[in-house]
Amino acid sequence: MRTYREVFRTPEFTPLFLTSATQVAASTASGLALGTLVYAATGSPLLSALSMFGPSLAQVAGALALLSAADRLPPRAALSGLAVLFALGTAALALPGLPMAAVLAIVFGLGAVAALGGAVRYGLLTEILPKDGYLLGRSVINMSGGTMQIGGYAAGGFLVTALSARGTLLTAAALYLLAAAVARFGLSPRPARTGGRPSVAETWRGNARLWSSAPRRHVYYALWVPNGLIVGCESLFVPYAPRHAGLLFAVGSLGMLTGDLLTGRLLAPHRRERLAAPLRLLLAAPYLVFALRPPLPLALAAVALASIGFSATLPLQQRLMALTPDEMSGQALGLHSSGMLTMQGVSAALAGALAQPTSPAVAMAVMAAVSVAVTLTLAPGLRGDPVTPRQVNPPEGTFGEAAPEGRAP
Q1: For residues 320 and 218, what is the distance between their CA atoms, to the nearest angstrom?
Q2: In 187-244, where does DSSP find H-type helix?
Q3: Which residues have C-beta within 8 Å of that of residue 34, sequence separation ≥ 6?
Q4: 10 Å Cβ neighbour count for 166?
């Protein structure tokens, strides 16, 4: 599978794509509306930021408690049911007079559940597309997500002005219901990928099994840490250039779209694997120029160039799938997504704390330097072709045990 046309010709890819894109638009618009509503009610920048970005940190709770359900629930029912839950939660946030404690409880609860939603969605993608088409399909979904975020913020800003923040939240709830309908009527019923009852204990056992392989651990570190540190750089765009932060975010999104197109569609598989490490370095190296506090045109060029490096996650995800048994693909991808978002939230906090006694420019350069160092440290563990899951999984009965450091069981 080599072209986007082939991907969209695959039965059921289009409804899964539309479900994902609609939910991203709903999430983006509702986040902007809720942040506006909370700031107007409290005057607190902290509470406003928590209402918008707190769900990313809450994903760690979902990763620790819910991910076993990703492979133990029928995908169509799970996706449509979760979209309805998000619709109800978003509509509840529009209720007048809702206490702030209730707002944050709903926001963090939906953030935890979102970890399961991503795991189910990308696990289903591995069933809909053949193995050689997964990376291309994920590239398309990544690009649509970036596009819908840009459009969602623009549409959300317009709707907040035209309808009010509560009206925008209700519009987002309607979008979630639309996503639920597309999933319910566009996808075919499929059985769960594995048996058993989902539980917190099963989630811990599954995560321990995934973590027990040294090759998988290296992939997870590479997916989480360099990426998260650079998102920490992006979190400082507003204090770095208050009047031009929107432009910095926009060129960053453009760079991400370009990288996904180049890596997912135009590069041959052998070149893609060969360029994975350089792409991870490209993700961070251009930010080192911020130590010199560059003029705006150079800063924009550095951000756009660096953001192409986010596409390094595509070959890393392909390596992760090669190292993971099919029956655990949903949980493996969910752990990747939740860990990545959690690391992004932590890195944003670290970047802000570092910028406080120094400056945003210095903090961005330091975060980029650490990202480069992490990438170089992880490089030896990511060389060579990934081995099959049977070679990296512990034998039956030892899934809860940690692997010896430095070698796969």
Answers
A1: 10
A2: 200-211, 214-234, 237-240
A3: 51, 52, 93, 103, 107, 165, 169
A4: 17
pLDDT in tens, 277-324: 889 899 999 999 999 999 999 999 999 999 999 988 888 888 888 888
| DSSP of 26-66 | HHHHHHHHHHHHHHHHH--HHHHHHHHHHHHHHHHHHHHHT
Burial-class residue 92 by CB neighbours within 10 Å (0-12, 13-18, 19+): middle
Maximal C-alpha separation, the chain = 60
Instruction: Quote the pTM value.
Output: 0.71
CA nearest 320: which of 339, 345, 307, 302?
339
pLDDT digits (tens, 9 = 90+) for 125-136: 989 998 778 878
pLDDT-derived band at 237, boundaries 50, 70, 90: confident
Tokens of 110: 């939906």
The CA distance from 149 to 25, in Å, is: 6
Residue 197 CB-half CA count within 13 A:
3
Asked if residue 159 lies in contact with residue 29, where contact means CB atoms within 8 angstroms, the answer is yes
